[in-house]
Structures are given as structure tokens and as C-alpha cells.
Amino acid sequence: MSAAITVKLLDLDTPHEPSFVVDRPHGFDSYVLMGFTTGYFSRTVRGIETGRPGDIILHDPAFPQHHGTPAGQQRGFRNHWIHLVGEAVGELASKYELPLNEIIPTGEAGMISPYLKAIKKELFQRRPYYRDKISLQVEEMFLAIGRSRRDADDLKRLTPVEQELLPQFAEARALFHRTYNKPWTILKMAETLNLSPDRFGVLYQKFFHATPKDELIGKRLEEAKVRLIAGSQSIEIIAHDCGFSSLYYFSRLFKKKVGCTPTRFRRTSPK
């Protein structure tokens, strides 16, 4: 980030009367991030839209703001909100692909509340480097929103059948990572989900943006690197314990992926 972020105001789950409407036709003097915990209406780049709990909107300072309680909703809208100033806010929005002045659905009404609570605490305590800490917390919040948005976009690209299979694949993936040293093959992996190897491989890559083989090798190499640094076991034992079929295969693959031999990695890595 090129500069620190300044927090002007914030509040959590603010209640409003049904008749209350925020109307700022000329925008505001800061970015306004809102996370709604009830239904609401708001002006966006598409006009006046109604939204659901869990929706997030990030308004830029020049955008005319207008939001309130939808007709027919008995209780007034509630939302978390924070006013942010600084060039870094726009930079973070771009970095984490957060569209300005649009509804970002997350499905989690309290998604940003832990971040706002942490920021509020820093503002109150004002401990050394609190401004830097707040900037980091804002970035972490933007990252979480961006990640949620990307996850939702990925889910929309899946067919109904694929959406049903995704949780099963996530469980199987966790199993493969826990038991990385077992002699897994694509066939054995596919059998855990009663799928053909080809179907399994295609879906795995679609869900996790990596092949099952590449992920398994990556996990084994990471574990091997930890053991090379932390212990004094022979490289042959480490290779075997991490699931590699031979010392030669391990050494060749390690050099290809890491850029040096296991021996050199052990010798040059800080303990």
C-alpha cells in the first residue's frame, strides 16, 4: 500500500427506523463500506436495488449514496459500516477485485463484524503502531470479502451435480493431505468417491485449480523440506516417510521443483 488508511467513523449492526434513509446525492468525503444484516435497498451502478443479509457494498467518495428499508419490511434495516480515507482503499479494492458501488453477496450477515471489532479496539487503545495495525486489518477484511466473492463466482460456474459433489471432494482432498505418505494413485483417489479416474481428475482440477497429482507432490515436498531442516534423519528415510517411491525419484523431483538438491537445501536453510 502506498499510504496508511484513516478510519473516520464505524459502527456495528446499527439499527435504523423504517423511515430512515441515507441520501447523499453528491457522494461523501470517504469510501463507505457497508455490510447489511437485514434486507435493504441501495443505489448502485445499476440503479436502486434491493438486497439480502450478508450483502456488502463499497461506495467510492464520488458516488451518490441512497439506501434505506424496503417497502413492506416492518423493521428498519441494520448494517455494519466504516468510513475509510486514503489512496490505499482504492488500491486494495483493485487488488482484491472488489467492485465499487455494486452489491457483493456473501451470505454471511456478520462477515465483516470481527474485522470492525478489531479496528474499533485499535482506535480505542491507540497502542504503538495502531495506525499500521488498522491498515493491515482493513486489508485483511478486503481480502476476506474478495475471497468470498471469488468463491461465489466459482460456485456459479458449477452445474447442480457438481455443486453436490464439491463437499465430497473437499473431504477427500483433506484425507489425501492428511495421509500424503500413503501410495496414492489417481485410481485409488477416484475410488474414494466412486468415480472413474478421468472424471475424478477433471472435477478435481475444476474445483481446486490443480491436478490431484500435483497437489499430492506439493504436499509431500513441503513435508520433506520441514524434515530436512528440523531433523537429522537421512534423506533416504525422509523420502520414504514422505511417500516417495525411491531416493532417486525424490532427489530428481526435489531439484526440479525446489531448485536445488535435498542435501544443499538442508545445508543452506536456516535452522
TrEMBL record:
Gene3D superfamilies: Homeodomain-like (1.10.10.60). It holds the Pfam family HTH_18. Keywords: DNA-binding, Transcription, Transcription regulation. SMART domains: HTH_ARAC. Residues 170-268 form the HTH araC/xylS-type domain. It comes from the Bacteria. This is Helix-turn-helix transcriptional regulator. It comes from Paenibacillus mendelii.
